[in-house]
Amino acid sequence: MLALVAAIGLAVAVNQCSGKPILFLRWSFLRAVFGVRHMGATWQVGDGREQALAEYVCTNARRNDVGDVIRVIDDFCYHKSFLINVGDEKGQILDRAVTTANPHRLLELGTYCGYSALRIARTMPSDATLYSIEFSSANAVVARRIWDHAGIGDRIVGIVGTLGDDGATLSKLRDEFGFACSALDFVFLDHDKAEYLRDLQRIVDQGWLHQGSIVVADNVKRPGAPEYRAFMRSQEGLTWHTQEHQTHLEYQKIVKDVVFESTYIDRNESTTR
Ligand SMILES: C[S@@+](CC[C@H](N)C(=O)[O-])C[C@H]1O[C@@H](n2cnc3c(N)ncnc32)[C@H](O)[C@@H]1O
């Protein structure tokens, strides 16, 4: 046992010293894996890295330059601490989907440190607004600090809550933020994988989607959203049309992932918007 621990320790040390360390042998990645129980309860790794990211961004990224803030976050994840952002590779799939949707009103489930919201806000039209829902108030504080530094704070409405909180957040979206029938053009699902399908159903039940609304779902393969994947496949050509993007889990090129980009087919709607 001792020999195994020593061998892992040595491998991590050699890996850290190499010019291009492998993600799975980086201490920051292993720390995140060991912190998975803490992550499940609080959605923070438990070593303060989310707050450290906000500090790093404010120190190293040019103020009011969203592209530079995204670059600095990716740099932090590759070279300092691994974070569960959508990342640069899958982020490009997200960017293209936002461009295709040409949205006015967008909803994100799972803000974390605000990385995907930065990418979405950078790509969406200048008159569009992103509503980003986050379960953890501590994560919402980190994201707000980063968005304000990037100069796009006024284009994103951060909301602490979940769509499963007995209607509180759904009512807030409807009554405070004017979510109405067919008003939602784009949704990004990147929160609790077990809630993807239920939360999508809640959005559909509100009548907020319209013919051509686009829903992007991260991590369909890993950690995996099997219920959601089965649903989208069963609905292909009926109520949804889905493109399955083969890609990799964030910040490495070994473990694969799949991102679903699904377009809503509203059988009751005869014309597009
Ligand atoms: C994978 S991270 C999101 C990463 C972020 N989209 C990005 O790419 O920068 C998942 C986030 O979802 C949040 N979360 C978990 N369950 C949630 C729920 N039911 N509703 C809203 N947010 C939730 C967690 O607190 C965590 O911050």
SSE layout and pairing:
Elements: H1 2-17, H2 27-34, H3 36-42, H4 49-60, H5 66-79, H6 87-101, E1 105-109, H7 115-123, E2 129-134, H8 137-150, E3 156-160, H9 168-176, E4 184-189, H10 196-206, E5 209-217, H11 220-224, H12 226-234, E6 240-248, E7 256-264
Helix pairs in contact: 4-5, 4-8, 5-7, 5-8, 6-7
The protein binds S-adenosylmethionine.
Please explain how this structure is put together.
By secondary structure, the protein is α/β, with parallel strands linked by helices. The protein has 2 domains: 2-79, no CATH class; 87-272, Vaccinia Virus protein VP39 (Rossmann fold). It is built from 12 helices and 7 strands. The chain has helices spanning 2-17, 27-34, 36-42, 49-60, 66-79, 87-101, 115-123, 137-150, 168-176, 196-206, 220-224, 226-234; strands spanning 105-109, 129-134, 156-160, 184-189, 209-217, 240-248, 256-264. A 7-stranded mixed sheet has the order 3-2-1-4-5-7-6, sandwiched between helices. β4 (184-189), α10 and β5 form a beta-alpha-beta unit. α4 (49-60) crosses α5 (66-79), α4 (49-60) runs parallel beside α8 (137-150) and α5 (66-79) packs antiparallel against α7. The longest helix is centred in the first third of the chain and has 16 residues, at 2-17. It is globular, with a radius of gyration of 19 Å. It starts with a helix and ends in a 9-residue tail after the last strand. The mean pLDDT is 92. The structure holds S-adenosylmethionine. S-adenosylmethionine is lined by residues 43, 84-86, 109-113, 115-116, 133-136, 139, 162, 164, 190-192, 195.
